[in-house]
Design a protein that fits this description.
Rossmann fold, DNA polymerase, domain 1, Nucleotidyltransferase, domain 5, globular, 13% strand, 898 residues, alpha/beta, single chain
Length: 898
């Protein structure tokens, strides 16, 4: 059967516009081209790889007036206007499609979805399979055995069968589901409290919305009330979500034939736009780029090793290799608690070996015997190993009794250093973006959701293919990224800081932290009571009960009933986020905004930390093992998860109570906390060479009081608390590139007063002003900035024609150099301290890193000696032109050690 690929134009252009591409693209003339480039390469990819018989693009007309808006003016009224550089790229794409002779369909007053629905109807009598290039759920109602949806990013086809498997409903039920849920993205009203899962369950049980309404007495009182209140809105919602299959426009099937497509005429436009990498594909469409939207599947020779004879043969080859890629397959993402299922290896592109250690689906090697046979190689520091997030494999193997040595390369970290702004450094994404390869999704093996199984339940041949591919792709990434680190001057940072830090973090994760469960339970009870107390206060302040966690209901209270100012709008309506509530709390004497802020803070602590923490305790160790991430934050800072230790507040009583539950691992031991004092300002003083700022630190003065006194022209002993707070806000605001607007809002002063204060600050400290200008100049010249140790961050926003984006780029340039250098400093301190602990065999262990703070476990009798060692290593990590001050304390829990 012939195929017709019909592009959901605006949806794919938006997807291209917001794609994590690494850098903002512009033509040589400065025209923004990111969406144009990615959309165009997707079209070329479809022609090259999918080879459709027919091809066309459906577009929204662009006129704000549509049939749906005519009868429901609120339709899509909550959406923000498109970015100013989006419209020109849509027009440029239409121009390129015209040159390629690819038909575009757009009809005044109609949307692309309705045009697609109509084309689907017009093709019903043809022997043609329509493939809609989109992932929009609104199109599910169109699916048949001849109408399918294709997601080019995931190379995934959605048809009626897998729609039912994945979403739980049929195309015929799609409109019923949406009539219940509505669509907040398009401002289509739905029944409050009914999300997709609940809607699916209701339609399965009652058959239709009408059936649900007939059996409303069988539902919960609240749901019954909500359905009753929906009333006539059901008819409105159904009309809004049902696609129009009778759009009146001229459709010529023959004009959509791909044999009419012309590519060579694109050459002058590609040259004009700077699309050099796409030029060669106009002459030879079969030539694929590593960046094209449609990817090749990985192909290779992946061998299953599950007999003693196979193992002997494999080991004979491995012993001749002095560097290889390694990956582990396990039963869980939790390295400490998972079970090792197998190991895969590669040292040549297109080849991989999978050693099966455990499986419920076939014969495997004896795990203990196989690991013993591998031990001499895995524990040999002279044999190099590389991996993708090899920290995980290091911990897994340690739990299995193997101390992995010779860890020399991590492809995730290498990619991160080369492009820290990349949205994800996951292997699948790197394979797609850097190698042009589509890897096997893990969900293809273990499934999703309730049906998910572990690797133990997957057929061995499938595991071998998947694991062999992982090792092979890791090897290919190594061969690509290693020379790039050299050419970009990042190899020293990689070898001397990031790779040594990997081992430090592995030890920290493996060690874990003990919790005082009794103290945690006391905190849980206290916070739960506080939440109930705040709920009552909020309902009294509002004058009635309502769902505090519902932004919609809260916005009705604040803006409709209390008539407070609408500060900003989002795609889903009037915003009630923290920044809005803070402004409202400052503007009005009414207590409600402030109470909501307190409620959210306490409720978040309860739901994010206090309640889940006991569930995070490992059954194997009795401790919490947080994951520390060194390839996430673009500035170089570390982050953590499970739990996110960085987000535990330290300035509130409730946050401090959570820290109180983190305790030493055994009796007779104590926690040491070491914290850099104002390290980012000290880094700023070093980099800016500002005499005034350096004087303050060199004479060990309170930096904020010092600055306040200079700006106010008074003695330090006359500085008021308000004056010091204002100076502190400017000191830290400078680091984050804060302008007059942000400072004014933070201090509750006028914008003019804030601007005057900033001007006086810059005049008093000219070295800082010069430093900021240098950072911006470096970003403009090179497209990136560097930290003290040579870490890079691309600042693509600096060349944007959008004034706000360009201002953001300037702020990022300044902040990255300062904050990134401070991040380098604590990383260097961690590596040095870890090496000293090992070298001198100290009975001390690193447990936690949070921002500028380290937490260690040590014996009580050694606390003063060890505290001095920690202070030495942190203060001497990187030499600055001003003293580096480290505050050290200790106690029987994390709170007391502050």
């Amino acid at each position: 059967m012939k195929t017709f690929y019909l592009i959901d134009g605006h949806a794919q252009i938006f997807r291209a516009y917001y794609a994590p591409f690494g850098a903002q693209l512009n033509s040589p003339d400065g025209e923004p081209t990111k969406a144009t480039y990615i959309f165009t390469q997707m079209m070329l990819g479809i022609l090259e790889k999918r080879k459709p018989d027919y091809l066309a693009v459906a577009l929204d007309h662009g006129d704000s007036s549509t049939e749906r808006r005519d009868f429901y003016p609120e339709y899509k009224a909550n959406r923000d206007s498109a970015p100013e550089d989006f419209g020109p790229q849509v027009r440029r794409i239409e121009e390129l499609l015209g040159i390629m002779n690819i038909p575009t369909f757009k009809v005044k007053g109609q949307e692309a979805d309705d045009i697609i629905a109509t084309i689907g109807r017009l093709l019903e009598g043809e022997e043609i399979e329509l493939r809609i290039v989109s992932k929009d759920k609104d199109l599910h109602q169109l699916l048949t055995h001849k109408v399918k949806m294709w997601d080019p990013q995931k190379d995934f086809i959605t048809d009626p069968v897998n729609l039912l498997e994945d979403k739980g409903y049929t195309p015929e039920q799609a409109v019923e589901i949406q009539t219940l849920t509505g669509d907040s993205t398009d401002n289509i009203p739905g029944v409050p409290g009914i999300g997709p899962k609940k809607a699916v369950a209701l339609i399965h049980k009652y058959g239709s919305v009408a059936g649900v309404r007939e059996h409303v007495d069988e539902l919960t009182p609240k749901m019954s009330e909500n359905i009753a209140n929906q009333g006539d809105l059901f008819d409105l919602t159904r009309r809004l979500v049902t696609l129009n299959r009778e759009v009146d426009f001229e459709f010529d099937l023959d004009a959509c034939q791909t044999d009419k497509v012309t590519l060579k005429k694109l050459k002058p436009r590609f040259e004009e736009l700077g699309f050099r990498r796409l030029l060669s594909r106009l002459d030879d469409p079969a030539e694929a780029s590593a960046e094209e939207a449609v990817r090749e599947s990985v192909s290779g020779d992946y061998r299953l090793v599950n007999t003693e004879k196979d193992l002997e043969s494999f080991l004979a080859e491995l012993k001749e290799i002095d560097f290889f890629a390694l990956d582990t397959e396990t039963t869980s993402v939790h390295a400490v608690d998972c079970e090792l299922v197998g190991l895969s290896f590669s040292w040549e592109e297109g080849k991989g070996w999978y050693l099966a250690l455990r499986s419920n689906k076939g014969d495997t090697l004896d795990p203990d015997a196989a690991l013993e046979a591998l031990r001499p190689i895995l524990e040999d520091p002279t044999i190099g190993k590389c991996g993708q997030n090899i920290k995980y494999d290091l911990i897994v193997l340690r739990q299995a009794g193997i101390e992995l040595q010779g860890v020399a390369f991590d492809t995730m970290i290498a990619s991160y250093l080369l492009a820290p702004e990349r949205r994800t450094q996951a292997m699948d994404a790197l394979a797609r973006d850097l190698l042009g390869l589509q890897t096997i999704p893990i969900s293809d093996l273990i499934g999703k959701g309730k049906k998910q199984v572990t690797m133990l339940e997957v057929e061995l041949d499938k595991v071998a293919e998947y694991a062999g591919e992982d090792a092979d792709v890791t090897w290919r990434l190594y061969e690509l990224l290693a020379p790039k680190l050299e050419s970009e001057g990042l190899r020293k940072l990689f070898d001397e800081l990031e790779m040594p830090l990997l081992s430090v973090l592995a030890d920290m994760e493996n060690e874990g932290v003990a919790l005082d469960l009794e103290r945690l339970e006391e905190t849980r009870v206290s916070l739960a009571a506080k939440v109930d107390e705040l709920k009552s206060e909020i309902h009294r302040a509002a004058g009635r009960e309502f769902n505090i966690d519902s932004p919609k209901q809260l916005s009705e209270i604040l803006f409709d009933e209390m008539n407070l100012r609408v500060v900003k709008k989002t795609k889903t309506g009037r915003s009630t986020d923290a920044s809005v509530l803070e402004i409202l709390a400052a503007e009005t004497a009414h207590p409600l905004p402030g109470l909501i802020l307190k409620y959210r803070e306490v409720n978040k602590l309860l739901g994010t930390y206090v309640a889940p923490l006991p569930e995070m305790i490992s059954e194997k160790t009795g401790r919490v093992h947080a994951s520390f991430h060194q390839a996430v934050a673009a500035t170089g800072r570390l982050s953590s998860s499970d739990p996110n230790l960085q987000n535990i507040p330290v300035r509130t009583e409730q946050g401090r109570k959570i820290r109180e539950a983190f305790v030493p691992g055994s009796p007779g031991r104590i926690l040491i906390t070491a914290d850099y004092s104002q390290i980012e300002l000290r880094v700023l003083a070093h980099l800016s060479e500002d005499k005034g700022l350096r004087e303050a630190f060199n004479t060990d003065q309170d930096i904020h009081t010092f600055v306040a006194a200079q700006l106010e022209g008074i003695e330090q002993d006359r500085v008021t608390r308000e004056q010091r707070s204002r100076a502190k806000a400017v000191n830290f605001g400078i680091i984050y590139g804060q302008g007059a607007f942000g400072l004014a809002r933070g201090l509750g002063i006028t914008r003019a007063e804030a601007a005057k204060f900033i001007d006086e600050y810059k005049e008093r400290y000219p070295g800082i002003t010069g430093f900021m200008e240098t950072c911006v100049s470096e970003a403009e010249k090179n497209g990136f900035v560097t930290t003290m140790l040579g870490r890079r961050r691309t600042i693509s926003e600096i060349h944007s024609n959008n004034r706000n984006l360009r201002a953001l780029g300037e702020r990022l340039a300044i902040n990255t150099v300062v904050q990134g250098s401070a991040a380098d400093m604590i990383k260097r301190a961690m590596v040095n301290l870890h090496e000293r602990i090992a070298r001198e065999e100290l009975d001390m262990r690193l447990l936690i890193q949070v921002h500028d703070e380290l937490v260690l476990d040590a014996p009580l009798e050694k606390v003063e000696e060890y505290s001095e060692i920690v202070k030495q290593e942190m203060a001497g990590a990187i030499e600055l032109a001003v003293p580096v001050k480290v505050d050290v304390a200790w106690g029987k829990n994390w709170l007391e050690s502050k």
